[in-house]
């Protein structure tokens, strides 16, 4: 009986980790669209940086890295996830 409980717990832990990776990938994409323009520089402040750092704190190193790699893959594939709604391989090279 306890073996079954441990197996279910492990499956739920994996599911929660996958959902966390997807969630922080989405939050990073949303955070890239929220920006504050600064008058003395052409580079704005975005919430993207906050969500990247928060993913490292909440998920840990490897899952946070996976969530950010997923974010980059979404952008390269053409989804408008980068700042100001742009996408494509040319934006990250």
Characteristics:
single chain; 93 residues; mainly alpha; Arp2/3 complex 21 kDa subunit ARPC3; two-stranded antiparallel sheet; 3 helices; elongated
Any overview of this molecule?
There is one protein chain. The chain is mainly alpha-helical and 93 residues long. Helices cover 65% and strands 4% of the residues. The protein has 3 helices and 2 strands. It has a two-stranded antiparallel ribbon. Helix 1 packs antiparallel against helix 2 (48-59) and helix 2 runs antiparallel to helix 3. The longest helix has 32 residues, at 2-33.
Return the structural class. Answer: mainly alpha
> What is the highest CATH level, the class?
Mainly Alpha
**CATH topology heading:** Arp2/3 complex 21 kDa subunit ARPC3
Number of strands: 2
Give the spatial strand order of the biggest sheet: 1-2
Shape: elongated
Write the layout of secondary structure elements.
Blueprint: H1 2-33, E1 35-36, E2 45-46, H2 48-59, H3 61-76
Antiparallel strand pairs: 1-2
Helix pairs in contact: 1-2, 1-3, 2-3
Sum this structure up briefly.
With 93 residues, this protein is mostly helical.
